Amino acid sequence: MKRKPVSVDDFEGFSIRVNNIYTSRKQLDWFKKAFDEPNNINSFAFVASFPVICQCLVQSNIPSPLLGLIHISSEFSVENPHNWLLPSDIEVNIKHVNKTDKGLVYEVETLIYQMDYLTIQNTNVMLDKDRSYKPDNKVTSNKAEDLAINKALSSTGIGLKTALKYAWLSKDLNPIHLHPVFARAFGLKTALIHGMFNAHYCLGELSKRDLLKNTDNVKFEFNRPCFMPNQVFLRPYENSSNYGLFSKDKSERFLKIEVN
Fold first, then answer.
1. What's the CATH fold of domain 1-138?
2. In which region does residue 12 sit, left (phi positive, over 0), alpha (psi from -120 to 50) or beta (all else)?
3. Kind plus residue range of the DSSP H or E element containing 184
4. 173-186 pLDDT, tens per residue?
5. Number of neighbours of residue 190 by Cβ within 10 angstroms
6. Strands, sheet with 242-246, edge to edge from the N-terminal-most edge strand
7. 3-class DSSP state of 25
8. Residue ranges per domain, the chain?
9. Residue 134: its pLDDT value, please?
10. Domains 1-138 and 141-260 share a fold
11. What CATH number belongs to 141-260?
12. What is the per-residue pLDDT across 136-166, written as a single tens digit (0 to 9) for each?
């Protein structure tokens, strides 16, 4: 509340580093129970580093309110093996801000070190949407979603109880995820699940099916908000290592996953 934002032209980037961070055993156990072993799912790096990301955003003078940021994408690259039972050093850099037709776009880079080796790099793109922006609603001939195989790999129901549990696990207590009343106060029709919950769920299901072996890079594109309650379906794309998380009839794609 006391942050003093600057203009886009005056923002020069910002970074912080916190050393010797231990992830709580309770957090590790909950993540394993909900998704899979954290050492097998590189998106756990976002959960472990989220407090540092928030601290960096709060201490910076980015020209945007923090609660207005929309998560657009998240990419994870594994440089060396990481053991979450050991301490980590976490560095977060707000590299730059770009002014676009949609609004202000931020690139937030997280570097995680262990024993002086870079182990995981996580790049998140966030949008401060311009309220006057109106998307082009013209119908296009792109039928990429038809390439998603009809048979789903897995499916799960998502409700408010799920969001509350994940909020306490991740420390992401953004009110739009906690109650429909809070969400409507921010102009949404109801509460929506955390985008990263869906990301963890997808990687957990892929890991259990041995579909993440020899995977060093994973990228998520968050396409549409997943309002609750909801039923989501993880589907593979034909002739690729990409996956999507869809509504039952595939009319909505909540996120797309690229696995390399």
1. Thiol Ester Dehydrase; Chain A (3.10.129)
2. alpha
3. helix 180-185
4. 999 999 999 999 88
5. 15
6. 14-21, 88-99, 103-114, 117-129, 69-78, 217-222, 253-259, 242-246, 230-236, 154-158
7. helix
8. 1-138, 141-260
9. 77
10. yes
11. 3.10.129.10
12. 654 443 455 667 788 899 999 999 999 999 9
